Amino acid sequence: MTTQTRTEAPVLTGLPVLGSMFDLKNDSLGTFLRARRDHGDVVRITAGPPGVRSQVYAVFSAEGVQQVLAGESANFRKDNAFYQEIRESFGNGLLTSQDDDYLRQRRLVQPLFTKRRVDSYADAIATEVTTLVTEWEKAGRTSVDVLHESTRLALRAVARILFGTDVDSAVEVVERCFPGVGSYVLRRGYSPVKPPRDWPTPGNRRAAALHQALYEECDRIIAERKAGGRTGSDGDDLLTLLMGAESAEDGAFDATELREQVLVFLVAGHETTATSIGFALHLLATHPEVQRRAHEEVDRVLGGRTPGAADLDALPYVTQVLKEAMRLFPAAPVIGRRAVAETTVGGVVIPAGADVIVAPWVTHRHPAYWDDAERFDPDRFTPEAEAARPRYAWFPFGGGPRACIGQHFSMLESVIALAMILQRHGFEAVDTEVPVGPAITLQATGPARCRLVPRA
């Protein structure tokens, strides 16, 4: 066995005193791209003045990502400042829990996310897509912001699957509260100095009110369900299943745990899928030939009927479009961890206690795996092309033991939604470029308007 050379990580060039603080604040995704281009696959990035300076080790190669998320996952924990802020805002659900808490929650929830169970949600997804497109047509809409509309669709779909008939109230509360909570988490997660949450600052008070509204809505619906109130049409909605999740080894969720799981599923379950659907529609609108091929596949396979879970394998090109959209616009553009013990990645030393990030935004554009990486090309995701790439050259759902439990649900919803929308409409881009930035998930900072072209 050869001994791997150990070197110190190169440091991204920044200001003498403040490092890369302003670069990260103004354009963190561009800063990470520059770090890889100028310094390689493991880079140390510093930010802030002496005394409160933070530093992060950024890992960009597919092999390095695999080591962090899978091969040495026990050494890279969700202990960084950003995850702590998410944990304090949304609770200790599957997204943020660790160790025995996470294993217990995962065991209780896993049976609710088998392929067979998730496939049974196809009809609920189709109902919400039909409602959305019918609204466009009845209102005589000639253009839509596809990212805004995709967010509405994904939120209503996940609320229907979670709560059955309890949709409208939950959607209103999340639409009103989530953006403010997300901004608050982002500001605190990246700030080297922040006041305690219980200090009565205007920002803390606004965030506390939004948190409380989210918690109260989840608690209200749970209480109604426990009292024998409204349920899904067959009592098979996800909340009913969560309430019944139990095992001899793990017990059942208590009231706080149930609320935290519901909130994580409601928030995380719509944001990521909305990003994928919205950017897929935007990219189709800016690439007419790709859109033509997608229309042809949808028409040939479905013949005007509503798609179901069994149709996913018969829609390979629509799936390729979606995967390529997720490559260029990953819903989680940066994923954070903290190293427990010193290790080496790509021959570079990562010290114990260091904050570490892996970045789909960068790895999905890495020239070692993607030729002309900014070009939209769904043929990158033919079976042959996928087999030729390293496993972690594309990882929009994370990976390893903490991979997103809802990835099959997200793919199912996204492919069904794209197919059904393309059955009835074509798209022409009004906004050909959509600026983006990171929040809890990738966020558009400008509109993504498209003209609607009804199809006969």
Account of the 3D structure:
The chain has helices spanning 21-39, 62-71, 81-90, 99-109, 115-119, 122-138, 146-163, 168-190, 202-226, 238-244, 255-286, 288-302, 316-328, 360-363, 383-387, 407-424, and strands at residues 42-47, 54-59, 76-77, 143-145, 246-247, 251-252, 335-339, 343-345, 348-350, 355-358, 425-429, 436-438, 442-444, 449-454. The protein is an alpha+beta fold. The strands form 5 sheets. It has a 5-stranded mixed β-sheet, sandwiched between helices. A hairpin with a 6-residue loop joins strand 1 (42-47) and strand 2 (54-59). The longest helix is centred in the middle third of the chain and has 32 residues, at 255-286. It is globular, with a radius of gyration of 22 Å.
Please tell me the overall pLDDT. Answer: 91
- Our Rg estimate from Cα atoms comes to 22 Å
Query: Strand fraction band?
Result: 5-15%
How many helices in DSSP terms? Answer: 16
Indicate the overall shape: globular
From the N-terminal CA to the C-terminal CA, the straight-line distance is 65 Å
Trace the largest sheet across and list its strands. 1-2-10-7-3
The helix content is 40-55%
Low-confidence stretches: none
Helix/strand/pairing class, anyone? alpha+beta
SSE order, as H and E? HEEHEHHHHEHHHHEEHHHEEEEHHHEEEE
Number-wise, the strands total: 14
Q: Biggest sheet: strands, sense, closure?
A: 5 strands, mixed
Secondary-structure map:
Layout lengths: L20 H19 L2 E6 L6 E6 L2 H10 L4 E2 L3 H10 L8 H11 L5 H5 L2 H17 L4 E3 H18 L4 H23 L11 H25 L11 H7 L1 E2 L3 E2 L2 H32 L1 H15 L13 H13 L6 E5 L3 E3 L2 E3 L4 E4 L1 H4 L19 H5 L19 H18 E5 L6 E3 L3 E3 L4 E6 L2
Parallel strand pairs: 2-10
Antiparallel strand pairs: 1-2, 3-7, 4-14, 5-6, 7-10, 8-9, 11-14, 12-13
Helix pairs in contact: 3-8, 6-7, 6-16, 7-8, 7-11, 8-9, 9-11, 11-13, 11-16, 12-16
